[in-house]
Design goal:
There is one protein chain. The chain is α+β, with helices and mostly antiparallel strands. Helix content is 25%, strand content 36%. The chain has helices spanning 11-18, 24-27, 31-37, 67-86, and strands at 40-44, 49-54, 90-101, 109-119, 123-131, 137-149. The protein has a six-stranded antiparallel β-sheet, covered by helices on one side. A hairpin with a 3-residue loop joins β4 (109-119) and β5.
């Protein structure tokens, strides 16, 4: 599935998490499910999160990108944006995800870009646009996360 390059984070965010002894790239990875699906985070800030996922291995029986795979990519990107917005003292928990599937993809990579719609104290909502290798929109998703206090260390 290719080499994973490290995501790009704003320096102030890296410094905030490093002061707490947290490995930011590991914290904001795609997790075990994302790894199995080949999700790669390439850019991450509270203003914009970008990631890719291969179509191959993530298809339904007709050979098209599975809608659930698009949902995994969307929720991953929106959750990362929400967590970065909330900062080190908060965790983001998805409470609503909706996806509209516009067209199928049969090969290549899809790219998702998450941008904020609302960033508050207790919730964050991101729109995620997923496109194919030809920059055609495959899916539009919206994710709302509840921002909760992070558990105390120890």
């Amino acid at each position: 599935m290719g080499d994973q390059s490290a995501p790009v984070f704003p320096q102030d965010v890296i410094d905030e998490y490093a002061a707490l002894g947290i490995d930011l790239p590991a914290l904001f990875s795609a997790g075990h499910l994302g790894e199995r699906m080949g999700v790669r985070i390439t850019e991450a800030s509270a203003d914009r999160v970008v990631g890719t996922m291969p179509v191959e291995g993530n298809t339904q029986p007709y050979g098209l990108l599975h809608g659930g795979a698009s949902a995994v990519l969307a929720e991953t990107l929106g959750s990362i944006g929400s967590m970065l917005h909330g900062g080190a003292g908060k965790i983001a928990v998805g409470v609503d995800l909706n996806c509209t599937h516009h067209r199928g993809a049969r090969s290549g990579l899809v790219t998702g870009v998450a941008t904020p719609v609302h960033r508050g104290r207790s919730t964050a909502t991101y729109e995620i646009v997923i496109t194919d290798d030809h920059d055609k929109r495959v899916c539009t998703a919206r994710l709302t996360c509840l921002l909760r206090e992070a558990p105390a260390a120890g």
